[in-house]
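Explain this protein:
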Amino acid sequence: MPKLQAVLETALYVDDLARAKTFYETVLELRVLRADSRFCAFDVNGRNVLLLFKRGGSAKAMPMPGGVIPPHDGAGPLHMAFAISAQDLSAWEAALAKYGIAIESRVTWPRGGTSLYFRDPDGHAIELATPGLWEIY
């Protein structure tokens, strides 16, 4: 098999796209790459894309000029993690507090990393993780 290079896109499904877009733009300071009434794509540090889809908005095939995007959708609270530097951990805690976002859990991992968990407006478990979480990170 040829080798995979990276996870390029991560998708979350939201009930209120405008509210979710504002949250990710304001709290996490992500830059919008593209958006419409069905989805919003964010740049994550010039390497990854976070996709927010209006729940049910991508449940049908989407014809595009170059082909068709197959249907997909999701329900319930999902999880994703953003990598952060260990030096920025306390700054992230302060930033979340500034926006009134409660840290649901803090975990110190055996390899030395730390994770902060909080919820976005749709109840998704968002993690900010420092190096030392995984063997590869």
